[in-house]
Design a protein that fits this description.
Strand order of the largest sheet: 2-9-8-5-6
CATH topology of the largest domain: Immunoglobulin-like
Number of domains: 3
Radius of gyration: 36 Å
Shape: rod-shaped
Number of strands: 24
Strand content: over 45%
CATH class of the largest domain: Mainly Beta
Largest sheet: 5 strands, mixed
C-alpha cells in the first residue's frame, strides 16, 4: 500500500495543467460485490483521474466529471477495503470503497479427518468446510452447509450447519462395519467429496486351543474379530507366551486368514497364553508333554 500511495503522489505532481483547473466530487456505493459491474456518479466539470487502490489490486481510470465512472464485471474482484481517490485539477477527494465477497458459492474448501480410522468411534470423523466465491474470496455471509456421511452399510448420517465467519464444522460417527465411507459437503448445487477408510478395531476377545504334535504342542487361535464382528486383518501380530517356572518364551505370529498358529515346546506344567496389543486371551495349562 505504501508503494502504491508513493506512486500516486508522483502522478499527482505531473498532472496536466488543464486537469488542475477543474474540481469535482464522486458518490460511492455503500459496497460492491466482488466481480460485479458498477458505476460511480460524479459531479463537476472537466477531466480528472480515479485511482482505486486495495490489498491486491490497483486501478486507474480517466474521468469526465458530471458523467458516471463505469466498471465492467470482473474489474474489481478481490474483497477488501479500498481507497478511491478522485484527482481533479484543483482538488483531491478520498473515500473508502468496500468490496464484499460475491453472494454465490462457487467452490468449497473441504477438509475431512482422519482419512483412515477404526470402526465404531463416536464423533471420530470431522468435516470442516470453507466457502469461496468465483474469485476465491472467503464468503462471510452465514450460509447453510449440508454434510453427509454414507457408510458401507448404507447408513447415512446428515448434518446441516450454518457457517460462521466463512466456516462450517461438524463431527460424525464411524460405522460399525468396515469399508470406505463417502463424506460429502454440499452448498446449493456445489459439492465436494472425500473418502474415509474405516478399518476393524482392536480384537474384542482371543481364544486359543492346544493339541499335542509329537514332541511339541500346536497352539492356534479361533478366528479373531473386533467387537462389531469385523474380521481382524491378516498381518496383525498375535503374541504367544509359554511360561514354566521362572522361564518364559514368546513368539510373535501374524494372522493368516484370521487365525494365528504356532508350535511350542511341550513342557508339562507350562502355561500358554495369548495377546494382541492390549487384548489378552485365555490361558492353557499344559499337562501333557515331556
Amino acid at each position: 500500500m505504501k508503494v502504491v500511495l508513493a506512486s500516486l503522489i508522483a502522478v499527482l505532481a505531473v498532472l496536466p495543467t488543464s486537469a488542475r483547473s477543474q474540481s469535482g466530487s464522486m458518490t460511492l456505493p455503500p459496497s460492491v460485490p466482488a466481480g460485479s459491474a458498477f458505476s460511480i456518479p460524479t459531479s463537476g466539470n472537466g477531466d480528472g483521474y480515479l485511482y482505486i487502490v486495495g490489498p491486491t489490486q490497483a486501478i486507474k481510470q480517466s474521468v469526465h466529471l458530471g458523467n458516471p465512472i463505469s466498471f465492467s464485471a470482473g474489474d474489481l474482484y478481490s474483497a477488501g477495503a479500498y481507497l478511491a481517490i478522485l484527482v481533479t485539477g484543483s482538488s483531491t477527494e478520498t473515500q473508502q470503497l468496500v468490496v464484499t465477497p460475491a453472494d454465490k458459492t462457487s467452490t468449497l474448501g473441504f477438509i475431512a479427518k482422519p482419512s483412515r480410522l477404526p470402526v465404531g468411534l463416536h464423533n471420530g470423523i470431522s468435516g470442516t468446510v470453507y466457502l469461496f466465491d468465483a474469485y476465491h474470496n472467503l464468503i462471510l455471509q452465514p450460509t447453510p452447509v449440508t454434510l453427509q456421511l454414507s457408510n458401507a452399510t448404507g447408513v447415512v448420517q446428515s448434518r446441516t450447519v450454518e457457517t460462521r465467519n466463512g466456516l462450517a464444522w461438524s463431527e460424525m460417527d464411524s460405522s460399525a462395519k468396515e469399508g470406505a465411507a463417502k463424506f460429502i459437503a454440499k452448498v446449493g448445487d456445489v459439492t465436494s467429496t472425500r473418502i474415509i477408510e474405516q478399518v476393524p478395531g482392536d480384537p474384542c476377545s482371543i481364544s486359543i486351543t492346544a493339541q499335542p504334535d509329537g514332541g511339541k504342542v500346536k497352539v492356534q487361535t479361533a478366528p479373531i474379530h473386533d467387537c462389531s464382528g469385523n474380521a481382524i486383518p491378516d498381518g496383525t501380530i498375535v503374541t504367544f507366551t509359554e511360561t514354566i517356572g521362572d522361564k518364559q518364551s514368546t513368539v510373535d505370529v501374524p494372522l493368516k486368514q484370521g487365525i494365528a498358529r504356532v508350535d511350542m515346546p511341550a513342557y508339562k506344567g507350562s502355561k500358554i497364553s495369548v495377546a494382541s496389543g492390549v487384548v489378552a486371551g485365555n490361558e492353557i495349562l499344559w499337562e501333557g508333554g515331556r
